[in-house]
Every structure is written in structure tokens, then in C-alpha cells.
Amino acid sequence: MNTKEYIASGILENFLLNNCSTQERQEVECLSKIYPDIKRELISLEIALEKLAQSQGKSPPSKVWEAIVNKIDAEETNSEVSEAEPVLKVVHTDNIETPKPRKANRGTMIWRVAASIAIAATSSMVFSYYQTNNQLKVDYAKEQAMVLQLEQNLQKVLVDVESQNRIITTMASPETQRVVLNGVETKDPNSAAFVVYNPLTREVYLNQGTLPANPQNTQYQLWALKDGQPIDLGVFDIADANSFIAMKGVDGAQAFAITLEERGGKPTPNLEQLFVIGELG
Amino acid sequence: MTDQDIQQFQAGDKAAIKKLYDDYSGALYNTALKIVNDSDMAQDVLQDAFMKIWRSRTTYDAQKGRIFTWMMRIVHNTALDLLGRKDVRHEIQMDDNTVYTNESVVDGNVAIDASDLRNQVIRLKPEHQQVIDVVYFLGHTHEEAAEKLKIPLGTLKTRVRLALRDLKQLFETSK
Asked: What is the β-pairing status of strands A229-236 and A177-183?
């Protein structure tokens, strides 16, 4: 490209004076990496402006620096230093609100939950192969074993992704009901769990929400309530990763409830250990 | 201000930020003064800006430009925040180019006495100084600058380009 023309076009000045679009900005950044004379021109303009600013500088009073250094020290002492590096946070669904009215929250809830599933699914897919030719030559057998292990992991991940995809599809379909199970008075009224239920396909997906961790010798059990009768939908533990898990299927459910049972669950619920319950809308 | 100084600054070395302050606070304070036109407020701007500079030290990317440019942006944003984002930037006086500092200006490893720069800057045409004040120190867009100075946009753009070209030549011939 004709770098002289590019330089003469004035876009570099605009770039330095923050007077260009994001696209132009990226273009300049990119081109200056590729073409040394563009980079040189940019730097000499930048330096010229900097020297101008320096030459017109006015000394601030010394108390300003004293204030700054005190603040820096204070922040370090209190360990309140706010991290400069942006931290990628996985969005959790543990801030399920008790909807009042429920319908108003359905709209945003579904997308927040779907987004957190997508992020969880993506992050569980990240792994990489490290290979060098030399290493392969030297340690081929070891590599083979590793590859086998990775293939098994991949299978598992694909299955997870498959099931997460199913959950997302279910959530998006119009007949799917989203049920919040609220904490009962005798346990923790502020806790909640969340069920996604498709009565046509009989699929039931559960999110543990803010249920407290269950002691080792116990498990939570999910029940569907139909015509006054409880139906077992399976047991689960509180997991570290907050995602949706598939439970047993049911049709015609009118409500869902979770009790705390001994490990393995029971055929009928222990109502004294009822934690959360919610009806279909 | 060497590359090593900058790396140490980014690593959290307090002596390094002191060096940054020593080298650049004059220029940054002057910028703040031009925007807020009040010395108490400008001191607040400088203090807040340096705290932001410190806290976001790892985000500076040397590939994208000089550290001074990065700091200037932070000062701009801080000043505008303190002004409540209102466009209260003040009328630009034709700067009399009086410099109140004798601090050495460091260019790479070569320290340049600021008094040399003082003499050179006086040779900048007043109308060039004016447009650079508006678009660089105050950070206006070209459109805003043209409006403020009550000149056509095309005139302003030409003036900016000429000003920068002259400025560049000024410092190049001095070496």
C-alpha cells in the first residue's frame, strides 16, 4: 500500500487526537504494526505533542503527590486494591429472585439462565493439546495414552454439550413452564430452586438455585405433585457448578417440591424435610 | 522514562510511579487546568487521575502508544467526570507560553532541559497553539472545536494538520 499517501491523508493525526471511529482506530493500530514508516510517523507525532505538553507544564503543589502516595499506601494496607486486570466471571444463576409478579421476570430470567448455560458449556469445552515434534519422537507411548484420555474427555464434553443444547431448546419452546420453588417458612424462606418443565415432552430440568449444601449422608430429592400425589423425579447433591440437570420425566405435574432425604432417596417424601416448593402458573 | 521504568510501574513499583509523576505531572496538571480552569479542581483531577493510573497500571499497552498519551486520556476522562460531563470547558486564552517548571523532560534515555523547549514553543503560531489547545489539551472533536472557535470545519482541520506538521518539524530540527 502507498504508505506516503496514507500518512498524508491525516488519519494519523485524527487517531492521536481521538477524532476517529473505532474502525479507523483499529485500522491505524493494525497498519502501524505492519508498516514501519507509518509507525515511525505516528510515534514522531505523538512525541511532538508530548513535548509540547511537557514544555507548557505547570508544577502542581507538593500536597497533591503526598495525597496520592498516602492513598496508594492506604489501599495496599487495607487490601482494598481493586484489581486492574478485568476478570472474566462466569455468570451464575444463584441470584434467582422470587418473582413478584412472576410473569414480569420470566422475560429476562430465561435469557440470563440460557446465557449462563452457554458460558458453562463453553468453558467446559476449553482444553488444548500441547505437542512438539521432539516430544512426540521421544515419548510416543506417553502421548498415545494422553490422546486416549483426551478422547474420552472429549466424548464426555460432547455429551454434556448435547444435553445442555437440549436444555436450551426446551427452554426456548413455548409450552415450557418455568417454575420457581420458594423456600418454606420452617427452612429458609429466602432460598429458592428453579425448574424448567415441558409437559409435552415430559422433560424436567432442575437448577439448584440457592439451596444450601446437603450433608454427606443425605441427598435432595425432587418431587412432582399431581392430583395430590408426590412423584419421585430423582435425587441430587448440591454441585459446585451451577447448571441445569436433567431429572426424571413426568406429565401433568401441577407443582414441584424438594425434600432432604437420606442418600438414595425414598419412595415417598419426608414432609418435615421439605425445603422448597412451587406451583405451576 | 525508560521501558524498564514503565515495566516496573506496571509491576506495581511505587518508586516507578513516583518517576512517572515527576516526569509528567506538570504536563498533566496543565492539561487539567485548561479543562477545568480552577486550580483546586485541577489538583483534584490530578490526584484522582493518578489513582486511576495506578489502579489500571496493568491495562496500559505499549503497543498502542506512548504512556503519556494513555495518561492524558485518563486525565481527560477524570476532568470531564468532575465537571459532571457538562461541556464546561472554558474559553481558550491565547496561551502566553509561560512555563512554571524547570523539570527535565525525559525523551527515551535522553533528558532534555525544559527551558530549551520553552524557547521553541514560543515559535508556534498563536492560531496553531489555539487549535492544539482545543483538540489536544481539551480533547474536543474536530466538529466541537470548529464550533467553539467559530471557524468552518474545513479550516479547522487544515489548521490542525498544519499545526501538527509545524510542531513536528520544530522538535525535529531542535535535535
From this structure: unpaired
pLDDT in tens, B118-148: 455 556 788 888 999 999 988 888 888 999 9
A-B interface: how many C-beta pairs under 8 angstroms? 148
Say what the pTM is: 0.50
CA pair distance A32, A36, nearest whole angstrom: 6
* Residue A103: exposure state from Cβ atoms within 10 A (0-12, 13-18, ≥19): exposed
Classified as helix, coil or strand, A281 is: coil
For the stretch A141-158, pLDDT in tens is: 777 777 888 887 787 777
* Residue numbers in B near A55 (CB within 8 A): 99, 105, 114, 117-118, 120-121
Cell reading at A154:
472429549
- Residue A264 sits at φ, ψ, to 5 deg, of 95, -20
The CA-based diameter of chain B, rounded to the nearest angstrom, is 48
Question: Which residues on neighbouring strands pair with residue B112, listed in sequence order?
Answer: B105
For A185, residues 6+ apart whose C-beta sits below 8 A from its C-beta are none
Asked if B26 and B43 touch (Cβ cutoff 8 Å), the reply is no
Q: Which of A234, A281, A277 is nearest to A256 (CA)?
A: A277
pLDDT tens digit sequence for A194-246 = 999 999 889 999 998 889 888 889 999 999 999 888 999 999 998 877 788 88
Q: Is A48 in Cβ contact with B164 (below 8 Å)?
A: yes
Task: State the nearest Cα–Cα gap between B64 and chain A, in angstroms.
Answer: 7
Task: Report ipTM for this prediction.
Answer: 0.79
CB pair distance less than 8 Å for B135 and A44: no
